[in-house]
Amino acid sequence: MSALRKGTEPSVEEREWLTLVERKMVLVVVHTLTYGKRLVDVLSLLETDFRVQVVFTAPPHVFGDEVPRFLQRLGGAVVPWDEAVRMTFDLALAAGPRGVERISAPLITLPHGAGYLKRLVSGPHTGVAGLRKHDLVPGGRLPAAVVVPHHAELVDLQRHCPEVLPLTHVVGDPAHDRIAASLPLRSDYRRALGLSDGEKLVVVVSTWGARSSFGRFEALLPRLIAELPAGQFRSVLLVHPNVWSGHGSWQIRAWLARCTGLGIALMPPEADWRSVLIAADWIIGDHGSVTVYGTLTRAPILLASSPEREINPSSPAAALALTAPALSPTHPLVGQLQYTAAEYRPEEYAAIATRITSEPGRFNRNMRRLVYRLLGLGQPAHEPETVPLPQPPPLDTWAPGRREVPA
After folding, report:
1. 129 CB contacts (<8 Å, ≥6 apart)?
2. Can you tell me the distance from the alpha carbon of 327 to that of 349, in angstroms, rounded to the nearest whole number?
3. Under 8 Å between Cβ of 29 and 76
4. Which end of the chain is more exposed for a tag (fewer CB within 10 A), N or C?
5. In CATH terms, are 2-173+359-375 and 176-357 the same topology?
């Protein structure tokens, strides 16, 4: 990586090894797999610009186990963290605060989910995750720009960290825009997943943490197997990457081996969950971002977990907790799905979805303008495109022991 060291002037050795020199250097700080997947959406705004060289680094993080494999699959040039903090860059992008004050570059920070949903009620840093002062001013150093998805966040910033307001930009939400652009492809995604005509898809979603729906999987998953008739229903699990990293990939697969052996699909943490969400007929979720993004689809939502104390009361997750029915441990599951579908009110879910972003469809435009301004470059002379999501692989590749329908 010595060829990518950036100083005031490339050395003779650097010119020897690099093909393109004197590029603007952008550092992408990937703490976790979740952060990395969000930052990739931003990188699409730079990908065809020969004036810009993008490099990646991975700071130490408790949920960072999957990051090296993620960066290897991505094919990015990786600068070790201990080298990155000794280098100078033209711009840095980060979706989390840890250690970023050590980077020598103008820094853009952005959220990694559907706004700021979770409230921490214990420990030394209570408050809404992402809106606490140490999240916004890491190490006491102001970033160059704070990116938020909705104008409503400005009220929280004024209350909790007013010094960042002059640096704050309401740009929108990239996952919202990709999902919205891909909704017309729902039938294509369902065919790609291998769903037959009339077969219903139940997408079971879990965020991470002690009060997530994953803590209820031991009781819920046997019901999916026993109560949803094979040939009429398929089920897929979308488990937050932090659960995989925190407990270990082997352990997650071991805990769920019986269920996947009986036909429940388990989406790997590196896969793109958004096309699967669009394909859903029902979503069983909790207070995490993926469930909130489900309000963009027409799938009725059941909440397996919705801990009031952990939800930011001004967030769309709080509104969803008051709208979506709660999963009952005693009533038949098929009947609950049918009830949820009968009670589904599109206008109620649409109102929740409007709390994800106040700039729908405009994230790429707004974010590209900000990135290029901080780089000191003119924008490319074309409209930034919001590309629909790629097709997912078949569910059978995630459920090796799929049950056959009895003859």
Report:
1. 116, 117, 118, 119, 120, 135
2. 18
3. no
4. C
5. yes
Q: Give 69-77's long-range contacts (Cβ < 8 A, gap of 24+).
A: 69/270, 70/30, 70/33, 70/36, 70/37, 70/270, 71/30, 71/36, 73/270, 74/36, 74/40, 76/28, 77/1, 77/4, 77/53
Note the pLDDT tens digit of each residue in 73-86.
999 999 999 999 99
Alpha helices in 85-216 (DSSP H): 133-136, 153-160, 174-182, 186-193
344 burial (CB, 10 Å; 0-12 / 13-18 / 19+) is middle
> For 116-173, how does the pLDDT look when each residue is reduced to its tens digit (9 = 90+)?
877 776 666 677 778 888 889 988 999 999 999 999 999 989 988 999 999 999 999 9
pTM of the predicted protein model: 0.92
Which tens digits make up the pLDDT trace of 47-71?
Answer: 999 999 999 999 999 999 999 999 9
Distance CA 326, CA 329 (A): 10
Question: Is residue 119 within 8 Å of residue 127, measured between CB atoms?
Answer: yes
Bridge partner residues of 57 (DSSP): 29
- In this structure, the dihedral spanned by the alpha carbons of residues 288, 291, 292 and 296, taken in order and rounded to 10 degrees, is 160
Query: E strands along 254-322, which residues?
Result: 265-266, 282-285, 301-303
**Distance in angstroms (rounded) separating the CA atoms of residues 77 and 18:** 12
* Side-chain-facing half-sphere of 296: CA atoms under 13 Å: 30
**Taking the domains of the chain in order of start, what are their residue ranges?**
2-173+359-375, 176-357
CATH of domain 2-173+359-375: 3.40.50
125's enclosing H/E stretch is none
Give the architecture (CATH level 2) of 176-357: 3-Layer(aba) Sandwich (3.40)
